[in-house]
Fold this sequence. Notes:
The structure holds three protein chains of three kinds.
Chain A: H1 6-11, H2 16-68
Chain B: H1 3-29, H2 31-34, H3 40-44, E1 53-60, E2 66-67, E3 73-79, E4 84-90, E5 102-109, E6 115-123, H4 131-158
Parallel strand pairs in B: 4-6
Antiparallel strand pairs in B: 1-3, 1-5, 2-3, 3-4, 5-6
Chain C: H1 3-8, H2 11-43, H3 57-84, H4 87-118, H5 127-148, H6 152-166, H7 169-179, H8 199-231, H9 236-246
Helix pairs in contact in C: 2-8, 3-4, 3-6, 3-8, 4-5, 4-8, 5-6, 5-7
Keywords (chain A): Cell inner membrane, Cell membrane, Cytochrome c-type biogenesis, Membrane, Transmembrane, Transmembrane helix, Transport
Transmembrane segments (chain A): 18-36
Protein name (chain A): Heme exporter protein D
Amino acid sequence: MAFDSFSAFIAMEGHGPYVWVCYAVFAVLLAGLMIWSVKRNQSALEDCQRRHDTESRASAKATGKAAASFTRVEIPQD
Amino acid sequence: MHPIRKKRLTIVLFLVAGLAIAVGLTTYALRQNINLFYDPSEIADGKAPVDVRIRAGGMVEEGSVVRDPESLKVEFRVTDYSASVAMEYVGILPDLFAEGQGVVAMGRLNAEGRFVADQVLAKHDETYMPPEVAEALERASKGRHQAADVEKAAESTAY
Amino acid sequence: MWQWFHKLGSPKWFFGIATRFMPWLLAGGLLLLAAGLVWGLAFAPKDYLQGNSYRIIFIHVPSAFLAQSIYISMAVAAVVTLVWRMKLADVFVKAIAPVGLIFTFLSLFTGAVWGKPTWGTWWVWDARLTSMLILLFLYGGVIALDRAINDEKSAARAVAVLVLVGVVNIPIIKYSVDWWNTLHQPATFKLTEKPSMPMEMWVPLLLSVLGLYLLFGWLACIRMKTEILIREQRTRWVKDMVLAGRK
């Protein structure tokens, strides 16, 4: 340990504010970048899932309709 | 490789090479403006303009710092080990300012060749070491100096 | 011979590989970075001249390394985009440009805060600092240009050309301290020569540099995956993967 006490560690012989500001900004930006990237990835994945869910439901509906068309003819009678 | 890709690669390489040459020539032409400061030798050769705000940099000569006891005025000589220039400055010096350390000063060169600084920045080198190591080195170099002095003394007494 | 190269260009293949490597990159990066920073902050001896303010080096140097390495890797990807029209290379450039911007900003910011107590000034227009500021603007320009062009293919080419134009700045940053008089000191951390600092300072610096490189690897993977998901969402393999993940 290069320091005698915790308060000496924080003060860094007067250079504390400079050192700690740098480390704080570094930590905040790096963590922010990582969290932002994870969130973007999740939302992109969710978008994809939503799109394919609705698509597969729509196609299922379409096939259901096609199957029904054999029994009930839906032609306007005018 | 596909001939079209080869052609594209050649174009890309030419683009980068051409740009590199252009930028290289520009920076070479502007090198005096890119230099942050004048060396003491350049000032001694008269390359630095007089009474124009310029920067001068070098090492603070050992034993040249004279502090005015009445005010914040400091006088010192800055050297690059082949020429030196006298400087004066009124104000608070950076923590790292010391004899044997690098400085970059902003100010004007007057007609007598004295540099009147209005801002002094400390320049340090790329070596880092713990204080104990620095002390040990200092002691070692002093020891060597002393040994050299003793040797010289021995030589002179031998004559 | 070119087979591995084209395989590398397959988004699906990359997606699988990235997913496999990411936990290791994240764990290794966080571990090395934390070890390097704690060692550097609390256990490394102080400097004989600068005292404790030199401890900023443990984040300043890794950030500056990353800022330049990211640009170089973007330039390589730009050549691949222009010559081989590989989609993945463009995905890479687009995904990591903001990361490069952040690291360039961090190296400028930590340098300014470090400069105040040591040099006596926050900023000086010397060659090193100015060329680093130009790098920041280049990253900003790359991001802006990519957003300004809607068509994916023309955006990719325009961005690649801009990245290649900017690459001449990299040797200028690196050698500025040797070619010109600058306030900034020459490099301390060199791969080819003996470092000009003792082991108990150099090892924590090495650890934090390696840790940040690994974290960058992780960031690149996750951001590229996002970009691939957005671009390839209509393809069969994305659909299969997404629907399989749902079950």
